[in-house]
Specification:
It is globular, with a radius of gyration of 19 Å. Helix content is 28%, strand content 25%. It contains eight helices and 14 strands. The protein starts with 22 loop residues before the first strand and ends with a strand. α5 runs parallel beside α6. The N terminus and C terminus are likely disordered. By secondary structure, the protein is of the alpha/beta class. Strands 6-9-10-3-11-12 form a six-stranded mixed β-sheet, sandwiched between helices. The protein has a four-stranded antiparallel β-sheet with strand order 2-1-4-5, with helices on one face. A two-stranded antiparallel ribbon has the order 7-8.
């Protein structure tokens, strides 16, 4: 069994990819001048599952996510969403499809309350005035659907929230707009134990609600706790993607750092089962 990141024909389904994936990337490449950031990356994101995207610093995770989010246009390759070929020229295009990204800085305004943050730039109006009742109702319903019950009031300033609560508001803001895929960039970074538990439970609820989740994380404990699938990037190439039970923590670290692992996640696999062809 060999995991490789070489080019595949568009009619083929690369190892680990699902033919009915909600989002599918084929042979995505991106460069900035002489720097090749991504090379022939194939990735699939099924609905109702958490796909962990892991890799060392500089592996290409951010560039890949920005291609998905419409910030960068790939130099080569194709993107399919719900089985249809799409081109995302801007974050608005991605949002219109139902792809929302929660970046590590969360992009929340501390001086605004929860409702104002969730509707920032998308305010509802009635008779040329803000429809506060409608916005409050939708904000409450969205938070309730994600079982976010720790906030005292949806009118409290975001500055007064804990790290976990802020992360929950940012995720609720994303899913409010009929999101089908949510990308979470290091959602537990700098959080305490209790706050991390809250965010990981939220990630699981997103998948349970049928959304496709892309989780970017350096924390292997978090990855193995919530991920259904793992995709490993190294030096801009996808080393492998597969179900989480095909890995253990050391295998993932080996693949991230060297592109090859001589370990086996279970006794039925040989030591050469996981490797990348250079």
């Amino acid at each position: 069994m060999t995991y490789a990141s070489g080019t595949l024909e568009s009619s083929q389904t690369p190892r680990g990819q699902s033919s009915n994936a909600l989002l599918e990337l084929r042979n995505i490449s991106k460069h900035f001048g002489p720097v090749q950031c991504l090379t022939d990356v194939d990735l699939s994101v099924p609905a109702g599952k958490v796909t962990a995207l892991v890799g060392d610093n500089g592996a290409g995770k951010s560039s890949l996510v920005k291609c998905i989010a419409g910030i960068y246009a790939p130099d080569a390759g194709e993107i399919f969403f719900e089985g249809k070929h799409v081109k995302m020229r801007s974050p608005k295009d991605a949002g219109d499809l139902g792809i929302e990204t929660v970046y590590q800085d969360l992009a929340l305004c501390d001086n605004l309350d929860i409702v104002q943050n969730m509707f920032l730039g998308r305010e509802r109006t009635k008779w040329r005035m803000l429809n506060e009742v409608s916005m409050e109702k939708s904000a409450k319903e969205t938070l309730a659907s994600l079982s976010v019950t720790t906030v005292q009031s949806i009118r409290q300033p975001v500055a007064s929230l804990s790290g976990g609560q802020r992360q929950a508001v940012a995720v609720a803001k994303a899913v409010m707009w009929n999101a089908k895929i949510v990308i979470l960039d290091e959602p537990t970074a700098a959080l305490g134990v209790a706050q991390t538990r809250m965010v990981l439970d939220l990630v699981l609820r997103l998948a349970k609600n049928g959304l496709g989740v892309i989780l970017i994380s350096h924390n292997m404990n978090d990855v193995f706790e919530v991920a259904d699938r793992i995709a490993v990037l190294r030096l801009g190439r996808l080393v492998t993607q597969d179900n989480v039970d095909m890995f253990d923590r050391q295998i993932v670290v080996d693949l991230m750092t060297t592109g090859i692992s001589t370990r086996s996640a279970n006794t039925n696999r040989s030591i050469n089962d996981i490797k990348v062809e250079e």
